[in-house]
Amino acid sequence: MSSNVSKAVRPANTGAFFLQAVVSFAVSAGAIGLGIAYLPVAAWVRAFLAVGTLYLVTSTFTLAKCVRDRQEASEVTTRIDQARLEKLLAEHDPFKPV
Predict the structure, then answer these.
(1) Transmembrane residues, as ranges (predicted)?
(2) Which of 76, 63, 60, 86 is nearest to 2 (CA)?
(3) Cβ neighbour number for residue 52 with a 10 Å cutoff
């Protein structure tokens, strides 16, 4: 069996999609920063909101990394299972007496 046939197609993000994600993150972070800075409350409330936002951003990155790692682990397992199946099929001789 040809290795090109069993090679999985890996989806790739385009440069435009990556740029859109970066711009979206920058705009939303800027909007939150401006909103907190101009909020008509005491400084300690703004500081509390800023720390909460920082915690939200870091936990979001951590969650995204965990989801990505889990997905990559399942892909590796799938590739190993696929390789084992291909090996069994390649070694199988239907005309061999049992």
Answers:
(1) 12-38, 44-64
(2) 86
(3) 11
What tens digit of pLDDT does each residue of 52-77 get? 999 999 999 999 999 888 888 777 77
* Complete DSSP assignment for the chain: --HHHHPPPPP---HHHHHHHHHHHHHHHHHHHHHHHT-SS-HHHHHHHHHHHHHHHHHHHHHHHHHHHHHHHHHHHHHHHHHHHHHHHHH--TTS--
- Sign of the CA dihedral with 37 first, then 42, 46, and 49 last: negative
Cα atoms found within 13 Å of the Cα of residue 40, Cβ hemisphere only: 0
Contact 39, 45 (CB under 8 A): yes
Q: What is the dihedral of CA 26, 70, 80, 78, to 10 degrees?
A: -90
Query: Does the global pTM surpass 0.70?
Result: no
Question: Rounded to whole angstroms, how far apart are CA atoms 21 and 90?
Answer: 44
